[in-house]
Amino acid sequence: MEVANVLHMTEGIGDYSYAKNSLFQQKVILMTKSITDEAISALYRGLSTGETICIAELSCSSGPNTFLPVSQLIQTIREECTSNGQQFPEFHVFLNDLPGNDFYTIFQLLPTFHEDLKKQNMRSGDGLFDPPNCFVAGVAGSFYTRLFPSKKLHFVHSSYSLHWLSQVPDGIENNRGTIYAAKELVKGGRMVLTMPGRENEHHLSNVCRFLLEPLAIALKDLVTEGLIEKEKVNSFNVLVYCPSPAEIKYIVEKEGSFTVDLLKTLEHQMDSCEGYNEAQSVRAFAQAFW
């Protein structure tokens, strides 16, 4: 079965949903805010005044985290416009994930998102922004395929999604013809990509263990208790890969479509008291496989 047809976070807003169990991912988005702010500011300074800014949030999942980076980007542009006395642009935001994603919950959150933007405007007191000037659309599909028209996007953001894959693509160092983001971004466009990785070339980093060890322990216990067959567990492969900075730099430079402005390693771990939250987070992504 194709991974794209089954992979999705646990839907809804219940106790076991991704929306209720993605605090770790939210903290990562907040940790990288300064990097995202700098990138979107540099992009905006090179655009024509009043130009519509097209933003893509890749692998947006569902829940509050979906709109968090979008709100941050809009707020940063607001501050740029206010400081320079410029007209506030319109925004076209594309929320992308695989077809099995819970887009219904996302669209239910749209009124809250626009209301929050309105409150931001009232707090700023600049009167530059009317929430309907931010147009949101859902885009279902894998970002390993073509999703957008040529030269459509100004800014691409993705957090904690690029580690998901079914297998290492063939000829990854030389697949220039299938780097679709290079075709979809305008000249001078920017991307901020955050992913779990490892500091060195050892393949069992702390982040990889955070993703895999709780699940492995739980599956082993289920086998011991006779609730699941050992053969099924042995045939189960978690479809993640956590790269090192050296790997990323090598691949990007060798392929040649993009340049790396900043490649930074950040460390973030859950406290020991957050063990329950860690287990819930793992369940939120692993449940779809069963």
From TrEMBL:
GO MF annotation: an example: methyltransferase activity
Key word Aminoacyl-tRNA synthetase present: no
UniProt keyword terms in alphabetical order: Magnesium, Metal-binding, Methyltransferase, Transferase
Superkingdom of the source species: Eukaryota
Gene3D superfamilies documented for this protein: Methyltransferase, alpha-helical capping domain (1.10.1200.270), Vaccinia Virus protein VP39 (3.40.50.150)
Any one GO biological process: methylation
SUPFAM superfamilies registered for this protein in UniProt: S-adenosyl-L-methionine-dependent methyltransferases (SSF53335)
Family in the record: Belongs to the methyltransferase superfamily. Type-7 methyltransferase family.
Protein name per its UniProtKB record: Uncharacterized protein
Naturally occurring in which organism (per UniProt): Solanum commersonii
